[in-house]
Amino acid sequence: MKTVPQSVNTSLLDSLTSIVGSKYATVDEGAMASYAWNSGVGSMPGPKFVSTWPVAVVWPRTTEEVASIVKFCAVSNLKFAAHSTGTGAVYLSRDAKTVVLDLSRMDDLQIDPMSQTAIIQPGITAGRLQAEAMKHGLTCHVVGAGPSHSPLASATSFHGIGITGASTGNNSRNMLGIEWVSPEGDIVRIGTTGEHWFSEEGPGPGYRGMVRGFLGALSGLGVFTRIGYKLFPWGGPQRVETTGRHPQIGMKPTSTMRFFCPVWDDYEGMSAGLYRFNAFGAAFGVFRMPPNHAGWMLSRNSAEYARQSVAGTLPDIAKLENRFGWQVLTIGHSDRQAEYHEEAIRKIVRETGGRFLDVSKNDAEMLIYNLVTSVYIGRVFRGMGSGGTSFGIAESAGLLPGVFRAGEKIVETDRQPGGAIISDGKEGFWTWSTESRILWAENILASEANTSRGITAMLRGFLMHFYMVSQNPSLGMMGFLAGPLTNLFGRHYSNVDDWMRKIKRTVDPRNTAVESNYVSPNKPVFSTVWRYSEKILFSPVGRPLFNAVTKFLGKKGVQKHD
């Protein structure tokens, strides 16, 4: 493992402390170890510690301090990378000579109940914002990363998709205004960030699309320090009343809440049900997790899940034969509206050939709590040795059958008993409706932790997915096109990498913002090489070579403990 030099760069530290104060800048190796750690989203298949550590970490409090740090980096031949709450802090310092900006001290929050908006900074978590918004009869969108994520980060810089998207939209469009520090250190304000008028962007070009695109720039185009943010009506209680005991916490439903677990006999029925739910448009959340993941969440620990699985006593929602289903939560603003919601949901399920599973009171309360807050992340992933993802599809609900069957095919060999991927399910799709029209489907690959075999299996599934989508556009739009993958597969999406480069070179001419998770300013040679080699690697003839390459990379990804 490589670390920063032992000698303290006094000049660098002095320059940074002159901006933020002596308490809020460090070059200490012990502190910087946390920022060399790969903590989450997209972590597969690399090592947990990156080989290049940051040269310093700073904790700014104001936008002006952020701008001063960025300007200092620009004139000092340094790079910068920013993160907010730390959820999904991925390879922050992968580039050499990087200063990491931890924005957790920037935690101002304002709510305007009349306009159903909030003004938030990067350090505000979704859980905190949601709790405050509920006091005003409002709620916010919580992405799949859970309540510890930053809504500002998901709205400006990464996927903004969460399981209540049927009613709370997509964070990339919930952003109403931007305060942005460009890679040159300029402070740019666009749209509404607290003024007494309303506009998403104001006059001129569409900056939201430029600075984030579909996936987000992941700190590759500057630092976002404040946004105007859309909130949504909440028909539930002002304060959530929890039930159960840790770790099996549930939520006591109100009289206007209705929870359903409908299932069908195949993917076609499941897709038809989702289409009708979207047309109905009254669901607070429509969510699907694989049966084994539901079992991991509802059991007290992994040993209990294993015992129930062997004994055949898992709840119905956790049984493989019930995998063609959804969790649906409706919340009325009156008892009569709640009754209407229930009548409509039952009619839709009946007319599409579905049926309802019986769910115990305790399990239902846990599932409701998870739907409302997205807090399930930690509970579900404790059942995995290691986790990666593939098939980030944001497309029409009609593509669901093909996407799911392709996902099954990708892991079919590795999920067999004795394989490297968990074998108690056919796939790992977490799926939900967003904006009452779009299907999000993400295939979680759960494998052995920190072994060559496990990392190889995840990498193989990940690359196979990209190739399948690039060769078969009917599977939908790929939702994880970021970093080096943009260079490899961008040509399949209207040469999006070339357009991203034009933006990168325009707003960041000195390449000061770390580009590792976004796009390189110049097209790398390996992207051209890949264009021809992928035809060989993914062919039947080239399969032995593909397996050898992924096995080699799998060995390289194992974290060694000294």
Automatic annotation (TrEMBL):
Protein name: FAD-binding oxidoreductase
Gene3D superfamilies recorded: 3.30.465.10, Uridine Diphospho-n-acetylenolpyruvylglucosamine Reductase, domain 2
Domain FAD-binding PCMH-type, first and last residues per copy: 50-234
Flavoprotein in keyword set: yes
InterPro entries: FAD-bd_PCMH (IPR016166), FAD-bd_PCMH-like_sf (IPR036318), FAD-bd_PCMH_sub1 (IPR016167), FAD-bd_PCMH_sub2 (IPR016169), Oxid_FAD_bind_N (IPR006094)
Claim: GTP-binding is one of the keywords in the record: no
Signal peptide: none
Membership in a protein family: Belongs to the FAD-binding oxidoreductase/transferase type 4 family.
Pfam families for this protein: FAD_binding_4
Organism from which the protein derives: Pseudomonas hefeiensis
Entry keyword set: FAD, Flavoprotein
Parts forming coiled coils: none
PANTHER family: D-LACTATE DEHYDROGENASE, D-LACTATE DEHYDROGENASE, MITOCHONDRIAL-RELATED
